[in-house]
Amino acid sequence: MSARGRCAKVLPSELNKVCPERGDEPATHPRKMSDFEVVPNLQQSSSSVSRSRRKAHFPTGTNEKENLISWIPENIRKKECTYFVESSQTSDSGRIVCECGYLREQHLDDAAKPPIYLGKEWDPSRHIQEMPTDAFGDIRFTGLGQKTGKYVRVSSDTPPRVIYHLMTQHWGLDAPNLLISVTGGAKNFIMKPRLRNIFRQGLVKVAQTTGAWIITGGSHAGVMKQVGEAVRDFILSCSHKEGEIVTIGIATWGTVYNRESLVCPMGGFPAEYVLDEENQGSLSCLDSNHSHFILVDDGTHGRYGVEIPLRTRLEKFISEQTKVKGGVAIKIPIVCVVLEGGPGTLDTIYNAITNGIPCVIVEGSGRVADVIAQVANLPVARITIALIQKKLSILFHDTYELFTERKLVEWTKKIQDIVRSRQLLTIFREGKYGQQDVDVAILQALFKASRNQDHFGRENWDHQLKLAVAWNRVDIARSEIFTDDHDWKPADLHPVMAAALISNKPEFVKLFLEQGVCLKDFVTWDTLVYLYDNLAPSCLFHSKLQKVLLEEREHTAGSKMPRLQMHHVSQVLRELLGCSTQPLYPKPKHTERPRLSIPVPHIKLNVQGSSLRSLYKRSAGRVTFTMDPIRDLLIWAVVQNRKELAEIIWAQSQDCMAAALACSKILKELAKEEEDTDTTDDMLALAEEYEHKAIGVFTDCYRKDEERAQKLLTRVSEAWGKTTCLQLALEAKNMNFVSHGGVQAFLTKVWWGKLSVDNSLWRVIMCMLFFPLLYTNLITFREKRLQPVGCLAHLRAFFTAPIVIFLMNILSYFTFLLLFAYVLMVDFQPMPSWREYLIYFWLFSLVCEETRQLLYDPDGLGVVKMASLYIKDFWNKLDICAILVFIAGLTCRLIPSTLYPGRIILSLAFIIFCLRLMHIFTVSKTLGPKIIIVKRMMKDVFFFLFLLAVWVVSFGVAKQAILIHNEERVEWLFRGVVYHSYLTIFGQIPSYIDGVNFNIDQCSPNGTDPYKPKCPETNADNKEPIFPEWLTVILLCLYLLFTNILLLNLLIAMFNYTFQQVQEHTDKIWKFQRHDLIQEYHGRPPAPPPLILLNHLQLLVQRGLLHRPAMHHKLKEKLEKNEEAALLSWEMYLKENYLQHQQCQEKQNTEQMIRDIAQRVDVLAELLDLDQVKRTGVVEQRLGSLEDQVHQSAQALRWMMQALRGNGFSSGEDVPAMGSSKALEAKEIDLKGKPEESRPPYHVLARNLLYPGSHTLRFPVPDEKVPWEVDFPLYDPPAYSADHKDMAVQDPFSLSLESLLKINYNTMDGLIDRQSFHGLYAVQDGLPLNPMGRTGLRGRGRLHCFGPNHALHPVVTRWRRNLDGSIIRKSLKKMLEVLVAQYPLSDVWALPGGSLEPGETLPLKLKWILRREFWPQFQNLLKQGTEVHKGYLDDPRNTDNAWVETVAISVHFDSQNNVEMKRLNSFLQGCDPELCIRWQVLDKRIPLHTNHKELLHKVSALFGAYY
Questions:
Q1: CB 232 within 8 A of CB 275
Q2: What pLDDT score was predicted for residue 998?
Q3: What are phi and psi of 1427, to 5 degrees?
Q4: Distances (CA, A) of 272 to 19, 59, 67, 1501
Q5: Rounded to an integer, what distance in angstroms lies between the CA atom of residue 374 and that of residue 556?
Q6: How many CA atoms are closer than 13 Å to the CA of 849, on its beta-carbon side?
Q7: How far apart are CA 614 and CA 1330, in angstroms?
Q8: d(CA 180, CA 357)
Q9: Are strands 1394-1395 and 1347-1359 parallel, antiparallel or unpaired?
Q10: Mean predicted confidence (pLDDT) in 1276-1298
Q11: Residue from 294, 199, 186, 297 nearest 246 by CA
Q12: Which tens digit of pLDDT belongs to each residue from 349-378?
């Protein structure tokens, strides 16, 4: 037997070996768990644990470790035996042990000295106490790849919420979307290899896809081992972690082998655990593949099953929690999966079914699982004791002798109850159609249970859909939810649509769109606010929004963070899209802000109450729809970099080309600020993908109609901030789009204006120099109306064409430069000549044009923004530089004393003006790309000069210091250090550096000659240099080596790389930059400088004096609504063609074809395997049927022979039935539907094993043993009679004969009516016998009287009507509404009625509902009503000697204007506020007591209504 770790008995040195990181254990006093019921520091601990660092299987951080060390001992306890009582049993080694199972030395020191007051008998409730736990932390399994998990030792009385808090807050587990409780055989068993593989793969798949927790027993044996190996196989098969599989083992501390290694009072981080199966004996080892362990301690050793109650409570607690994620709030569902198993497993299944937990039984795993699976499709009446005995003898052949007759009866009863709840039972059969995977079976079981669960209205379907969304199982949603059984309205899907968007589940978004969800109806102003409120905190856009909100709070000087509004989103979007776009969501006025009828922050999507659905339940006047909802959703998805979601939404967009270009722009801007490299790469890749989408759509449009396609480029898009597709592409620098042939053709068309693009350049120049040639056919125009000779439109069309304006400006600029050069070189007089004045005038016209460009603001951006945009352009900077230098030179030139410096400055200005010529040549297809290459190489030169400066300065300083002593002249210092060093690179080596060519006449010995450098270090005669020539020569050689050979070649290599890099994209870059020049001259005044001043004067008069609006020369076109709608419809049609073409290309892709073929082969192989399994099963069934038929035939022949021997055919034996039990059973199994069972012939609720309101268990009574006439020798029911202290009239709860003889049965006993509606009932030993048979319990239970307890149940109904008063029908039948009530301290609804007090005519519960003044009128209604039931009521409170008999009376209001119904409603409104009363639609899923639903069924049949 393993030794037990106790902190009081372990030496410090030994303890340090186990827990090397712990300190001294603090002194703690044992306290009971009740002292920790409040858990005082739960809130504090949850705030201290950062949820952003939650990783369940990573090593515990320092802060988390300290938090655990302080929190766990305060809130989690263990149990210790404090009183040693010698047991009659001994340990495995033959030593004396205590009744708790531990040795004497394994107890505390005081436990061996029993005080007198403790008594002699060992009592767990008195002798086991709680104290702080001493085993928790990280568990590491040695020798098995260093697998690490979490563990904790807890008391068996620990509240489940404390354990749940530990798992979610301190262990860092996210709340599960599903709880899978796996139970079954605790010992190793053999499964078929195929079934084992199917189970493992399916279990892991459902856990991984739904985010489930798997709970098992945690030991390395039986079903727990199967689960652990399934998780292990999944981890080994994954190239990377696709998500942790949370596998929680709940085991008994006293049965864990090697548990002493886990004892660490200050926590084991980690605790080393050795898995040793060979020496474990009767104990068990923990499974190394589980991730978390909860070790339940009750203070005993070697006793299995201690953890079951705590596990049941924990699972129940978790299933009652609500998880909110991605807008979906669901109560965590739970499912029980059963493999193999024994008696304990049957109890687990029975308890799960009783508590409404669905169970999945894996047939073929053995024992209990197979017993239930083989009888699951049989009618309950055919599940007899003999059948169960036969099954047990086959499946439990090794332990069948241990089954007593009572045990067989108990098993039969439990299996009958399990099978009776078919809606909670799912049998997984290998090869069954539609159930190839365990994960599908598990999820189908949950949906089947949910579908059959009682509910009000449509809550059931909503719950199923929420589960599917939470699990992200769109396949289950398609097959189980969106079927013909329920008609989904698009508005019903809006809440889950929002949830799918928030949780990034594109497949569900696509499914909801297929089901008819209209985005224009779905997306409202407040929906967008809700979506942006739920942005992922890690999203860059979220941080930018928070920054905007912070700035607004600082601006308003408020202490509270302002609530997010759409104009905040618009502010961030404008930064991303560029200032050329108008705000997408304008800031509303305070009086115009649309408000929700329900505040957005309180919106939740949960199962019970208010939900996201309230977001769409508002009056029509309050609904504020956006301009373009598809655009809004697309932006929301793109800013979060959700590729699949954005692609689905973009496919729905109408203005798709602008949307794609805008998405590309947003993503590129976000990528610039994103810190994560992977996210940046994803954003840039997605941006490029959207650019390709825009190119693809535009290509199809351009092929169909060039003119309409070009209109799409310049159409003003109201949805995207009144910008154009072309402007978006330029803002995003989408060179591929701009360089598209269609875009370039449009730019060329703009460049030529109204001239035909077929005109030669020399013809344009000829007409420009001699304009009368325009009236010949030398120049052609695009518009035919300009062709007639003599039309004045020729001149306007020709001279306003951008190409003509460009050529005239070139001519003007060259004239300006020639005149400028002439003045500088020939005509620069002290007094300016007329030519120089002409230059000044010319420059003034250039300044005016630059000012016009600066102030030209067609989009209303403001002077500051226009100035920043103007400065960003390189050529504008060059213009400003040239003008400023010219003005500086002009200023100096006009001052006589600075005439010459003025000329020098003007010469520099001339250089800058000449450089400006390069911008003019960018229009050339030949020179333009070369200028781009030169600009790129200038950047390379800048970085090269930095490297060169290091060598130049270092060599120059060293040379100067070695050669010359104390040179004080700054200009000669600069010459020696920088200038001479720089010239040395090009071969001008100083003559004095080596001393050979030294000449004293070429230098100044003392440095006094300003025109000569100072001489180097020389001798006393100043004739020979004395500096180390060898050193200067070496330095010179090294300097030339690195500069001439290394750095210059590096520069050449850089130039070559830049040239090759740019050359590949030169054409695209040139086409992209060509737009700027074309747009500039498209909006430029036609006259060249200096005549352009006339245009400026005209502009000044129009704007300043006449106040006429400026002409917008940008490439924008505002279309009429009808034309725009037709154009967008055409674009959307071609977008659909593009998407279809893309899908066809993907299918034709070789890799995709290979994947499709591989998938088809896999499906075919699986179908073949299933077909083989089915064929084998059919053959086995036929063989079994044939054997049975042969056996039956032999029996029939034997009977015939015996009859003939007796000389007659009147044999007493019955003719054996020619049917086959096995054949019938197989036939039942083959049935696709569930067998229809009639109403059970015996009471069912009255035989539930656990009697309600007590801990009393009934004696199990199978169906066949219910009648009193059937002999049942084993029947020995317990007795139970509750004492109702608040009731004045009740029978004695003692079963003594003396007290029972005072009762008069079958008659009126005073005020108590003991007469039965079924006639006289039998009385045995002073106790009446239930006329419906045995119930498994004697006494009167919770009923007041022995014999019949009379009750009254009014069934108040009315027709369900529409708003117009018409009766609603379903399946051609009218629908009823019934009055139901929920009483205080009750979770279920019931009919307004109940037990009748002696002498009363109305039940007490009915009086609670009605006011006193309405009682007589309601009695009159009952008299006028129709009696639908009178007799026995199958009630869980019934016993063998007391039962409920009721009268159900139907009170129906046929007219909606019935006065009595209105009075009833008015009296209901003033009833007890703790009561809940409502009119509810009557159908079979109404959540009432089962016996009440039977009464409703009779009422619906009475009126022929829907049920």
A1: no
A2: 66
A3: -80, 120
A4: 10, 14, 21, 69
A5: 74
A6: 25
A7: 52
A8: 11
A9: antiparallel
A10: 76
A11: 294
A12: 998 998 889 999 999 888 999 999 999 988
